[in-house]
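Milestone M4 deliverable, item 7.
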Amino acid sequence: MLKNLTNTPAGEFRPAWSPDGKWLAFSSDRESTRPRGNGGFETVHSTELYVVRSDGAQQRRLTNDQAFAGSPSWSADGQSLVFYRATIAEVDHITSPRRLRGITQIATLNLRAAERHDLTSGPGEKWSPRWLAGDRVAYVSGGPDGGIERTGEIAGARGEFGSPSWTADGRRMVFHREVDHEWPPHRTVHSLDAQFNLVRTGVFPSFSPAGDRMISNDRTAGILQNSILVMNADGSNRSVLFSAPDKSALAPAWSPRGSDIAFSIGHFFQMVTGPARGSIAIVHIDGTGLQLLTDDSVNCGFPSWSRDGEQIVYRASGASEHGLFVIDIRTHASRLLTSSAAHDNFPAWSPTSDVIAFTSDRDGDYEVYTIRANGMDLQRLTHSPGNDAHNSWSPDGKWIAFTSQRGGFKDESALHPYNPQPYGDIYVMHADGSDVRQLTDDQFEESTPVWAPLRGVQ
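Output delivered:
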């Protein structure tokens, strides 16, 4: 019989049975302050260790560090726990898409004496500890030379090992790892709603009007320096459409007429990489004819075409321009669409009307809004406690897909390196915000959804 032992709105992670089966140890972010990360919009969390009886009674908090304590494992006598610990700053390093190295340590906690002792020291990521026979502890180390480690012994097998679990004698181990590292990926994934199909692709994909080809960025995150790839709709026959040696070409969008690609070109993510400057640019589908529609005096990005292909809506962020703007392709004349002290971002022009969807933190966290292209009829569509962003219209203009944080964290952040937002699932809703449906549910970030001109969500 299924029974809720903790019954809190927070995330409870990595439960472990005590040897006598009477207790469970686990980590939880229920006391986390959930501060913002280095990027200014990413939410980070901290975890503490807890124990609870198997009937849900005598729940007790074991650590109180406002930092990371996770993945507890019991000693054979049930008197101690081994776990990994780290500061929030170090976990922020581990989950950075810039591939920064972090530092965690493996520690033990004696439950009776409340004494803690570090088993490791020095740089490098160490996590997923497990108590083996006797006083031996095994754990996983990170980095290019990481692998299985055992305290007091020589290093074990090298490579990626997720959630390892050993037999009682410590001689055999089961674990998981991702075996397909092709990037960008192109594979069908499970959808929670059978009406909508899901295909995992690279970041910021966009389909040709005919649906036979697609473009996307070539790197794993927008913070990196990206080029634009073009390929068949099934991911085959890839080639570089556009690349700049000293700038990033980000968030490409295929024009409704099929002849041009709009994107932003420059340097982005000022909270991490320094001053951001970007222009809205257009190239022909063969990569020629580059023209800049805006200068790089401010951070201009995330272009989206009007349904007739004559205008583009984009985001601008800077001292002289801030908000959403609409620019005429032929004259390069731009006009202000939205203006507020908040951050308006990810504008998406409906393919069937003059309505533009976007995300904004004007009411606290990021929510999805719509506004008409003439600046009238502002509507808020989502009302969730987590960020809602990366909105995208269906080809018939009846649905909007978006990424939401409303489900919270599903796992300890430190266990997922280079994943700066270990939350965020794909949802769809009607164009008026009704009939919200969840399509994914896991501990990773699913984002930048776009609809294929054929059927289903991609």
